[in-house]
Specification:
single chain, alpha/beta, 15 helices, 21% strand, 414 residues, five-stranded parallel sheet
Length: 414
């Protein structure tokens, strides 16, 4: 978060400096302090990412600073008061949240609120609600949190927004809308997106049957109208965090746990997706199998711990020499798959050669002795229109040729 600037308006100088120090140390944000409303007023042109303001200042005892700062930046109230009526009054103002600064987790709440605002800033949200006042209220809540909001009056308009913005993260839609209802739109969305890629929150009246139905059909949540700002933000946060956690878990499940590369099924699926993607393009790529020479002998002679280290070294060298766009996977126990995207034959050959040489020079220390090992690589230079099974057959043939010709070499299928 380096480069983000935070404003703290707080007359308790000890607390203000403590918060500033924590924010700087944990989040690497620049923090500026004001100890009065007058000081804050003079600093409003400094362009802050967000602000934390004390509800009761010497020159603004009734929360006047909230209106001043809240009109300019995303703002969170800091207060020592537990007055419920006062909280309700200020939650209706232009603020994100209300933090009780006497609580044990005050600092954690401040840090989490900055991290959360930063993480989801500019995230695309499609808001589809039939009634304009309700739509404007939720749009205001979302805009305060720096979401990029596309507001639609019905499902057909929301559908159009999604077609033009496939990177949308959240859809919030009325269950009942003209033209295309929220339920109908949900069914369409779930045909193309998983619930961790695109979250759908359905809004409606208290209706147990409808709530159960939309949740069964893939909605991430169902919220009963009317919605308070605080409850809406809490449920939205929970939806986003659940999606994030599920994405992490799914990513972990798609990996080979020893090498950290994609497992066979994920590797195959991603290669096939890539081939579909470039079907109508004139694009070259390289597909290769990397095989560890004599891994069974290494396991038998030195133990499986050594064999596991060999596998990890191979994976590390593959990652080091390739780009994030490329596809790497553990294809079998001794074999890795590599797909280098949009690359010339000459460039691909150099990358694969560096991987082979780097692995050959990487030793494992065993009882103060260094053990070296080698790999063989079979590669096919592909082009648009090729299929996965054809690539596997050609790369396997080239790999067999590399083994037959003495190992520790690269062979190209011609």
């Amino acid at each position: 978060m380096t480069g983000r600037k935070i404003l703290i308006v707080e007359d308790n100088k000890m607390l203000a400096k403590l918060l500033a120090k924590k924010i700087q140390n944990v989040l690497s944000c620049e923090v500026e302090l004001a100890f009065s409303m007058a000081e804050a007023r003079a600093m409003l042109e400094n362009g802050y990412f967000m602000a934390f303001v004390d509800l009761c200042l010497p020159d603004a005892p009734d929360g006047e600073v909230v209106d001043l700062v809240g009109e300019k930046f995303p703002t969170i109230v800091l207060t020592a008061s537990n007055d419920v009526a006062k909280r309700e009054e200020f939650m209706h103002k232009n603020i994100l949240d209300y933090i009780f600064k006497e609580s044990d987790d005050c600092i954690d709440q401040v840090l989490n609120s900055i991290d959360k605002l930063n993480r989801y800033a500019k995230t695309k949200v499609i808001l589809a609600m039939a009634k304009l006042p309700e739509r404007n209220a939720l749009k205001k809540y979302l805009s305060q949190r720096l979401f990029q909001v596309f507001a639609a009056a019905h499902g057909e308009e929301a559908r159009s927004y999604l077609q033009d913005n496939s990177d949308t993260k959240i859809i919030i839609a009325d269950a009942k809308m003209p033209v295309v209802s929220g339920e109908e739109f949900l069914a369409e969305v779930r045909g193309d997106y998983n619930d961790d890629d695109l979250g759908v929150i359905i809004l409606g009246d208290k209706d147990d049957s409808m709530e159960a139905r939309v949740l069964k059909n893939g909605a991430n949540d169902y919220l009963i109208k009317p919605l308070s700002k605080e409850l809406f933000n809490c449920r939205l946060d929970r939806c986003l965090e659940d999606m994030r956690s599920k994405k992490i878990i799914n990513s972990y499940n798609n990996l080979d746990r020893l090498s950290g590369l994609k497992n066979y099924y994920t590797f195959k699926a991603e290669v096939e997706d890539y081939l579909d993607e470039i079907a109508d393009k004139d694009e070259e790529f390289a597909f290769a199998f990397l095989n560890i020479d004599a891994l069974k002998h290494l396991n038998d002679e030195y133990g499986y711990n050594v064999g596991d280290d060999v596998i990890k070294i191979c994976a590390d060298e593959m990652r080091a020499e390739t780009k994030g766009r490329d596809i790497l996977g553990r294809y079998s126990g001794v074999e890795f798959g590599i797909l280098l995207k949009n690359i010339s034959q000459e460039r691909a050959a150099k990358i694969l050669s560096r991987i082979r040489v780097n692995i050959k020079n990487a030793g494992i220390l065993i009882n103060l002795n260094e053990l070296f090992f080698t790999i063989s690589i079979g590669v096919v230079f592909g082009h648009s229109g090729m299929e996965f099974d054809d690539l596997v057959q050609k790369a396997s043939a080239a790999l067999s040729q590399a083994k037959s010709n003495g190992r520790d070499r690269i062979e190209v299928c011609v």
